[in-house]
Structure to design on (356 residues):
């Protein structure tokens, strides 16, 4: 198992970098996808890009859990609060204000009233959609001391319960058009749905630690890959089927939800693939470069919507070329300056590490 410098796992750093790029792919393709009628050639390409990158957020959560849940590492409450939780809160406030001011300046002009409205919006929790991730992660940090140190058999039971009540049952009921999606979860006090985001994602959080800590047999690893491929295919096909006949603005994203069995299977398969197959070699220079890039992925996640917004403002987010080429090109056009800005902000003394 390759390790990066300072004892960091090389494959974990590599996962963070690729998950960061996959987030940008989702945001680049998603907005464009919703502006087209379903079933066209461009729509199908964008649907594939969007679906096949939806492992990004679950893998980010798994990367957090793989280290924070390790009972061999000391994690006192003050350390958890002032190193991890404080960083999330500061980043949420800072970037919430930045985006509010940016939208005000671009679309209404920057005025004193606009600045005050932006600050008030952040206080009320009205932030850009991608910052929802920070609320969820903050909740997982608070849950961390409660789920550390379980036995392997305990994890197996936990995964079974979470898989059934978080991924399978809600999707089944929603596909049937049921109005009682949360009925069974509420009756059993096992409500893991989006009303309680930390609980909804705790399965991924725990899975990250489990997959790091315990070695899989060949049969289990192969089964995970098979299920991952099946999950990816189900996501693409299911999204196309649910949207058949829909026009622009009528997109149904149910099959792309991070809390579905198909996306769960795909996400776990990607994590396992990076651990067992795509880990870095022991070449120090390669490991060092990836580790440095991984240090800035949180900042890239926070800042990349600035460049996506600018592309949309100047009418460049839906270029007149095939999405097969446009999506990777736009992803690079956003990722490169985002990494640069994250790197620059990270260099700011004291404050930099809290906002990137």
């Amino acid at each position: 198992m390759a390790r990066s410098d300072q004892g960091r796992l090389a494959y974990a750093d590599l996962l963070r970098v690729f998950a960061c790029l996959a987030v940008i792919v989702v945001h680049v393709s998603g907005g464009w996808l919703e502006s087209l009628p379903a079933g066209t050639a461009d729509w199908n390409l964008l649907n594939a890009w969007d679906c096949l990158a939806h492992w990004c957020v679950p893998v980010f959560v798994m990367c957090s859990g793989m280290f924070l849940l390790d009972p061999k590492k000391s994690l006192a409450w003050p350390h958890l609060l002032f190193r991890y939780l404080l960083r999330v809160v500061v980043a949420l406030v800072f970037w919430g204000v930045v985006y509010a001011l940016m939208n005000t300046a671009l679309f209404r002009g920057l005025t004193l009233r606009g600045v005050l409205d932006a600050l008030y919006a952040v206080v009320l929790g009205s932030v850009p959609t991608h910052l929802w991730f920070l609320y969820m992660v903050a909740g997982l940090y608070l849950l961390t001391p409660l789920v550390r140190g379980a036995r392997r058999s305990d994890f197996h039971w936990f995964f079974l319960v979470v898989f059934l009540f978080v991924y399978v049952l809600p999707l089944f009921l929603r596909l049937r058009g049921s109005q009682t999606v949360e009925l069974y979860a509420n009756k059993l006090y096992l409500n893991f749905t989006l009303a309680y985001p930390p609980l909804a994602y705790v399965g991924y959080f725990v899975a990250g630690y489990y997959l790091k800590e315990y070695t899989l047999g060949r049969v289990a690893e192969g089964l995970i890959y098979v299920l991952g491929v099946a999950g990816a295919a189900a996501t693409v096909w299911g999204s196309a089927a649910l949207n058949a006949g829909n026009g622009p603005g009528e997109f149904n994203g149910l099959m792309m939800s991070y809390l579905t069995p198909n996306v769960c299977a795909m996400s776990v398969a990607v994590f396992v693939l990076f651990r067992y197959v795509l880990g870095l070699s022991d070449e120090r220079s390669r490991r060092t470069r990836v580790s440095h890039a991984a240090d800035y992925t949180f900042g890239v996640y926070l800042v990349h919507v600035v460049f996506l917004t600018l592309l949309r403002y100047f009418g460049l987010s839906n270029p007149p070329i095939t999405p097969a080429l446009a999506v990777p090109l736009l992803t690079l056009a956003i990722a490169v300056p985002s990494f640069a800005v994250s790197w620059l902000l990270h260099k700011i003394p004291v404050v930099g590490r809290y906002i990137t």
